[in-house]
Amino acid sequence: MDFTAKDVVALREKTGCGMMDCKKALIASDGNFDAAIDFLREKGLAASQKKAGRIAAEGVAFAKVNADATAGVVIEVNAETDFVAKNAQFGAFVENCADTVLESNPADVDALLATKAHGTDLTVADELREKILTIGENIKIRRFVRFEGVVSTYIHAAGRIGVMVKFEADAALAAKNEFQLFAKDICMQVAAASPTYLDQKDVPADVLEHEKKILLEQVMNEGKPGQIAEKIVMGKIGKYYKENCLLEQLFVKDNELSVQKYVDKTAKELGGSIKVLDFVRYEKGEGLEKRSDNFADEVASMVK
């Protein structure tokens, strides 16, 4: 066993692991620094498998555009606690995952995990295992979407919501500061109003028929005769579009305008053509099972 306390500290700084874990790694590797790193990485793999069953429903939704503004990404990475979601190491890992998606354009999460992480010689899966080891919580890359073209992104409430919107506009118009402000407005609309569809034609026929059936039952139960009920339902479907379709929604900054009218108004002011083509809105943890335990219970269980 040929190592010093300085070696333990150096290993801790290199890996971010605890002092005792670093000491054990150096003992197990007979003081060989590189072998100790491998030991800790192997331990990290074991740790990630052990933690894999723990609920990871916190984390962040993150979004960014690449340096030359030709592509954007929105990604959700989950952790077990909100405390870890605010950790600088965790934040750096999430952004590096986003950079890797922008750079390598993987097909899905599995492909991303197998991709070499941006700026490193490790795969994203290797980086993930190291973060699980050093941070001490289960971490999962849940989902991402990458758009190419004219894209704007927005992050709300420190990662509670991440939004990306794709536009059709020529390069000269898209480069204008006024367009950038407009695009940010549309992203904020998506964050605030949570639309499900872009416009009426994007609403699936089966969804529309289901909605009509429910509304018709409601109106008929109110005692309205058939023909009148049909007209009332069509009016309510109009309201459904205005609540659920982005371009039909009232613009949050000016309720005198729909989002589509705001788009048209901005295009006219900037002397060009603008179309909203697509959007993605991720809210961290949506649809995931949440942790039911609390800190007091956790402390009590540790005492026992």
How would you characterize this protein structure?
By secondary structure, this protein is α+β, with helices and mostly antiparallel strands. Helices cover 52% and strands 18% of the residues. The chain has 13 helices and 8 strands. The chain has helices spanning 5-15, 19-28, 33-51, 82-85, 88-104, 109-114, 124-135, 171-174, 177-193, 205-221, 226-244, 259-270, 295-303; strands spanning 60-65, 71-78, 140-148, 150-156, 161-168, 250-251, 254-258, 275-283. Helix 1 (5-15) packs across helix 3 (33-51), helix 3 (33-51) packs across helix 7 (124-135) and helix 5 runs antiparallel to helix 7. The longest helix is centred in the first third of the chain and has 19 residues, at 33-51. The radius of gyration is 25 Å and the shape is elongated. The model is unreliable at 298-304 (pLDDT under 50).
